[in-house]
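Listing S7. Sequence submitted for prediction.
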Amino acid sequence: MNVLVVGGGGREHALCWKIAQSPRVKKVFCAPGNAGIASVAECVPVSATDLDGVVELAAKLKADLTVVGPEEPLGRGLVDRLQERGLRAFGPTAEAAQIECSKAFCKDLLRRHRVPTPTFRTFEDVKAAMAFVETSREFPVVVKASGLAAGKGVVICPDAETARNAIHKLMESRAYGDAGATVVIEEFVRGPELSVLAITDGSAIVPLDAARDHKRLRDGDQGPNTGGMGAICPVAVSPRLQLQIEQQILLPVVHAMNREGRRFRGVLYAGLILGPKGPLVLEFNARFGDPEAQAVLMRFTDDLVPYLEAAAGGTLDALEGPRFDPRVAVTVVAASEGYPESPVVNRPIAGLDEIREDASLRVFHAGTKPQDGATVTTGGRVLATTALGKTVDDARARAYEAMDKIRFAGKIVRRDIGLT
């Protein structure tokens, strides 16, 4: 079969790498891809947000399955468009993708269906939002852009002044465009965070091993929120907690979406925090996480393609749960100078040829492209090293050893991935 992967980030590199290993797959294509993806798939210069272009490409290639990686084309209805053309796609429809594309919708859904989540208020009027934080006695609070902001529209506010500044930035200055037209102001909850991804066909679910990502730019969880600076998988989760997450969060949300006429097929990604009374939902994403996908898929030892096909086709209950490598995976991200606000691009990358990749060590490219015989940076998150090890320390040492061989001007790397 031919598979088309849509996107050009680290998540899509990991997906292409994993899909290409399947004995069921003849050829993997990627639109648009990047310098690293070109080693495992044929890259086609069609933007992931060019919905017409992607649909025509899938039809031209006679793609047996199109796997949509990023959230924006999902929210804009790429899967709907593909299905209208009779093309099979992995990912939710636009209606279902609202669970990520609108935090306001997601939080209201959770409240309506009694899925545990921190208390919150939603605001479309800037004056009302300002008045709320002015009169609030409960700090810190979390101010979130309701729309898509590439993981960067979230501000933890220790006081009213910080909250006012965040509201101004999102709602008045529109730092992230229309994503900040509506804001969610949420109770701040202390505790460890988990990323729990599950493949679903809208009925059955296949939970994947829990991961943890590191969202802040700097060591010690300092600096602004980013799309993710590293990840670790697995995170120790007791059988009781795993059952609680499945029965109180994942399955109720799948059923809630069905009851509201938004059947969800694809990857349902729960961003959780373990509060004093148990797991609470901070957010849902409608696709594989990035950089969680790199760590999770390194440990996914079975063929991924049957799960993608079954989720798209509504037959997931016919499959057994996948097997995972018992080793730990650690992913370390290298970002560009100026990330996340104004990343500097077009800087040559050196050292890639010094890394010996194998089944337990991979470099997953994100913001890269080939240029004049070299590889240069094109975005905020440039690439990531992912390593397997018997222990967290072993995996960390290997991931950082590889990362330290990679050189480009202004490289930003957290040094504490896997330690918190």
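Caption to Listing S7: primary sequence and predicted structure tokens for the chain studied. The chain has four domains: 2-93, 125-181, 193-318, 328-413. The chain has a mean pLDDT of 96.
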